[in-house]
Amino acid sequence: MKLLLTGCTGFIGRELIPLLIKEGHSLTVISRQSKGKIQTIPNEQNINFIQMNPAESSSWDKEEIQNSLKSCEGVINLAGEPIAEKRWTTDHCKEITNSRIETTKNLIKSLRNLRKPPKVLINASAIGFYGSNPQTEFTEENIQGDDFLANLCKEWESSAKNKPRATRLLIVRIGIVLAKDGGALGKMLPIFRAGLGGPIGDGKQWMSWIHRTDLCNLINESVKNSAWSGVVNGVAPNPVRMNEFSNSLGQVLGRPSLFAVPAPILKLILGDGARVVLEGQNVQTQRLNKLKFKFNFPMINEAFKSILA
Ligand code: NDP
Question: Where is the NAD-dependent epimerase/dehydratase domain (predicted)?
Answer without folding.
Answer: 4-219
